[in-house]
Amino acid sequence: MDIFSPVQILAETVVHQWLGIQVGSYLGEAVNFFIYDSIKIGLLLVVINYVMAITRYYFPMEKVRDLLTKRRWFGLDYLLAALLGVITPFCSCSSIPLFIGFLSAGIPLGITFTFLISSPLVNEASLLLFPALFGWRVTALYNLVGIIVSILGGILIGRLHMEKYVESSLLKFKNRAQALRENEGVELSVGERAKLWWSDGWEITKRVYPYVLLGVAIGAIIHGFIPQTLIERYLGTKSWWAIPAATLSGVPLYANSVGVIPVMEALIGKGIPLGTALAFMTATVTLSIPEALILKKVMKWQLLATFFGITIVGIMLMGYLFNWIG
């Protein structure tokens, strides 16, 4: 059972019973999407930022940074970040709260981006639904390539040393409970710590959440009002430019991995090559306009453009690979 199913039930109740919007209508789909994702991502923000405030208290950022940078095998830290992304069933926007938590805890930039790419790219659909739809060979190869793309993307961003383009308050953030303990030797009671942790977690949440609402609103409009037939019509070609077209068509959209599977099945059923359909699906779940709007609050456009550019190239290469072997 999806832990957010009560939120989905609430969204459906508000849309169809309280507002009286017709089931299956474009408006109903858009409003349902907005209510569900706004609440879901808001809850994730609050919980994850609170947990990260506790983590910073007991595991100061210097210790976390040392743990991840003083490694014996190059790339192990990136692999761990990618595998963490695999086991967290988040869409592109839902993974942002944990990404912010990593940054504020002092985790190196490249590693945080490996997680941000991997979390929506290698997901519950690619692990659980792909075998029945496309077989184990495609499933194994897709997940392996997805992990490799996320690791290489994170390493490249890390090598570019783009920390200066991240919101400085996130990199330097130290919660007040930790500061009192380290600088003044004050040991707080459990209740006092809990209040300070909540205050620090809420401080980050309230800065980001307005952008979450704006991003989800745009995603809801796209999700509700762009018909599937429009996508099918323009991706049916087998020309070389079909992969870039599929990738760039998927970027403005916003859906989770399970929600985009029916669209992908429809595309393949109409004769669209597997690699082209995968490029569209991967771009849809990994990158989106709502994600860009939220990330713009925590980083400058130079880093945002680099992240999108690297990920788009990785998705295109994945698409060409599957069309070649298909």
From TrEMBL:
<feature type="transmembrane region" description="Helical">
    <location>
        <begin position="79"/>
        <end position="103"/>
    </location>
</feature>
<dbReference type="GO" id="GO:0005886">
    <property type="term" value="C:plasma membrane"/>
</dbReference>
<feature type="transmembrane region" description="Helical">
    <location>
        <begin position="109"/>
        <end position="134"/>
    </location>
</feature>
<feature type="transmembrane region" description="Helical">
    <location>
        <begin position="301"/>
        <end position="322"/>
    </location>
</feature>
<keyword id="KW-0472">Membrane</keyword>
<dbReference type="InterPro" id="IPR053166">
    <property type="entry name" value="UPF0718_permease"/>
</dbReference>
<feature type="transmembrane region" description="Helical">
    <location>
        <begin position="238"/>
        <end position="255"/>
    </location>
</feature>
<feature type="transmembrane region" description="Helical">
    <location>
        <begin position="41"/>
        <end position="59"/>
    </location>
</feature>
<comment type="similarity">
    <text>Belongs to the UPF0718 family.</text>
</comment>
<keyword id="KW-0812">Transmembrane</keyword>
<dbReference type="Pfam" id="PF03773">
    <property type="entry name" value="ArsP_1"/>
</dbReference>
<keyword id="KW-1133">Transmembrane helix</keyword>
<feature type="transmembrane region" description="Helical">
    <location>
        <begin position="208"/>
        <end position="226"/>
    </location>
</feature>
<protein>
    <recommendedName>
        <fullName>Permease</fullName>
    </recommendedName>
</protein>
<keyword id="KW-1003">Cell membrane</keyword>
<feature type="transmembrane region" description="Helical">
    <location>
        <begin position="141"/>
        <end position="162"/>
    </location>
</feature>
<dbReference type="InterPro" id="IPR005524">
    <property type="entry name" value="DUF318"/>
</dbReference>
<feature type="transmembrane region" description="Helical">
    <location>
        <begin position="267"/>
        <end position="289"/>
    </location>
</feature>
